[in-house]
Amino acid sequence: MRPWILAAALAVTSAAAVGPAQAATCAGYVGLTFDDGPSNAHTPALLNALRQNGLRATMFNEGQYAAAYPAQVRAQVGAGMWVGNHSYTHPHLTQESQSQMDSEISRTQQAIAAAGGGTPKLFRPPYGETNATLQAVEAKYGLRQIIWDVDSQDWNGASVDAIVQANARLGNGQIILMHEWPANTLAAIPRIAQTLASRGLCAGMISPQTGRAVAPG
Q: Is 151 a catalytic residue?
């Protein structure tokens, strides 16, 4: 058989084998998270990049944007992503009253559900700021608080290389903070996928029971 024919045959065989065998290659799972969506400006490109690179992620949506862009919430779910609550207006919640906290969380639950994103089980407090009062409100709505193990610093102007390197620090069960709007985050997606695959790690879901990344499903 001529070399190019053999190469083509091998390529077809390996491509066909990726699907069912992929699960067996996961030595661990990490939680990719993207805050501050959804939007018409950034969500479509991010979802496209994630899907093209075989990645799933948790999208921590702000209620105000879920209400404004319901089609993008449906697109997130349609692309296989999970949707979490990131407050309604992204305030410093620990400086708010309990009733204000309640409003921020409850309105976001309603906005995401109304948009077709289901009822979130995960909550990420803006800026990662939390206290006992906020946690009591989260518990009222059956929400698991999710902070992060690694901060990509994409919100702070991190380079593509730095964002990829941050993802390379993830261990099994760990979660990384990213955002949907930085251009460098979008550009980093293919290399993030390659980096995780080279370490036998797969993008998983965040368990509402443990708050850690686990196998999807």
A: no
